[in-house]
Structure formats: structure tokens, C-alpha cells
Amino acid sequence: MSTVRTVLGDLRPEELGVCDAHDHLFLRSPQLPGLELDDVSAARAELAAFRAAGGGSVVQWTPYGMGRRTADLPGLSRATGVHLVCATGLHQAAHYAPESLDGLRGGLSELFVTELTEGIGTSGVRAGLIKVAGGFHALDAHARWTMTAAAEAHRATGAPIAVHLELGTGALDVLDLLCGELGVPGHRVVLGHLNRSPDPVVLREAAASGCWLAFDGPSRAHHATDWRMPEAVRALAEAGYGDRLLLGGDTVVAGARSVDGGPGMPYLLRRVRSRLTEAVGAGLVDRILMEHPGRAFAVDWK
């Protein structure tokens, strides 16, 4: 039976409820000094606000070495009633001190498999997905290394692979590597940040691979997120790809939390949901939030 691997154990897909398919409770990076998501009380309050808005589950994409605070996740899930999915994987090299990656050479896929099947460190929490990242319109050697390891871990476990697309670019290069060279089935790949570069031709070509297309995060000043996202989703639905879509909030810095004055996780349900409903109807939006995440992240675990 296919199940979604949460921090409290495996769930049937239909138990997720309304799902934020890409977000972060905790995150730390040298690229974001002083902006860390590292406050347990704030994370609890953010989850409670999401729950109050109708949310039921959050899929976290924070990978290895970026401050996941995995041991805190089960308690947060129990306290708020929100199901949490944790990630293994590796982000771009810029998010790590070079020496921290040296010990992973030759054993990256084994790390991913261990975190998916046995647990992360001493927390006992098992990851439910593998998160990797591409570059801006290209894949460097680090991206190819991490994606190759992710593909190996997928073959060993069945776990889905979620991909950070830098500024929404490089989707087809990622699919050429993961689904072409490395043989990962399209429906096991989730492409993130497509709202940041909503090229309609690229979106249709990516969807034709069978992968999942994630539109995540409210607009930043230099991104074409909110105002073009409904149009992009409608065009995909009209082209027959409405069943390949996911929505997420992608809160990456402390000031973006709703409890710290930002849009945060509730924004997905407070604003994005109604705006998208105007474009494609409540039925499809409900499926995107309540049905598609279960299909995207449920696995017949090996």
C-alpha cells in the first residue's frame, strides 16, 4: 500500500488533508545570514496559524545540513495536529561550507537511503522525500552528483525527488538528467519554483514528462509569482495537465512567517486559494490541495 512517510509514521494519502506541498519550518544557510528559521516557538505558532486557516499537512523541503531540527518535528506535529513530512537530500553547494561536503563523497546515496529508511541521526524520524537543486539555467557538477545520488536512493526506496529550480529555470535539463539519463519515472519527480519563470512552453513540456509541477511562495518584487500563477495554472489545465499540479508557501526566512509579520503558511489558504479558484474553479483547487500531494508523495516503500 502506498503511504506518505511523516515524522510520526506512515499515513494513507487521504489523511493529509489540505497540504502545503513545499515549505520550511526550520532552515539555516550561509547565504541567509541572520535570517534563519530556528525558533521552535515561532514554528509552533506558524503551524497553529496554518491549522486555524484549514491546513492539515506540510511537506518540508529542508535537506541535510541546513538546520532541520528533526528531533523537534514530532512534538510540533503532535502539539498542532499538522502532519509533517521531512526531507533528506542536499541543496546547492553554496549553502554549505566546502569541508562539510568532503565526508559525503562516495556515500551520498547511502546517507539518503539511511535517512529515508532508518531515520535521521538519533531522532528516529524518517525522511519522506529527497530534495536536490539545479542551477540557473544549467546543472553544474554538484547538481549532477546530488541528482545521481538521489536517483540511486529513489531506486532503493521508491522515494520521490523534489527539485529546487533556481529562479524557476532549468526544468528540462533536470528532467533530461533525472528521467532521461538516470531513469527516474516522471511521476516521482516534483519540480519547484516554476512560478518564478512561468514559460508556458517549458511548463507544458515538463508536464508531458509526467512530473509534478509545484507553484510555491507568494511574490517577491522581482518574481512573477502571484499575478501570473493563475494564468499559468489555467493554461496547464486547459492543455490537459491539471492533474500534475501542487501548491506551496516556501517560507525560507524568519520575517516571512505570518507570526513575524509576513505572509507565511496561512497565505496559501487565505489569499492564493481564492485567487486561483477564480481562474480554474474550486474543484481543481481542492484537488491540488487535498488529492495531488498524496499522489505525489505517497510511496510503496521498499
TrEMBL record:
The keyword Metal-binding applies. Keywords: Hydrolase, Metal-binding. Belongs to the metallo-dependent hydrolases superfamily. Phosphotriesterase family. GO terms for molecular function: hydrolase activity; zinc ion binding. Zn(2+) 1 binds at residues 22, 24, 131, 250. Binds 2 divalent metal cations per subunit. The modification N6-carboxylysine is found at residue 131. It comes from Streptomyces diastatochromogenes. This is Phosphotriesterase. Its cofactor is a divalent metal cation. The keyword Repeat does not apply. The lineage of its organism: Bacteria, Bacillati, Actinomycetota, Actinomycetes, Kitasatosporales. PANTHER family: PHOSPHOTRIESTERASE-RELATED, PHOSPHOTRIESTERASE-RELATED PROTEIN. Zn(2+) 2 binds at residues 131, 164, 193.
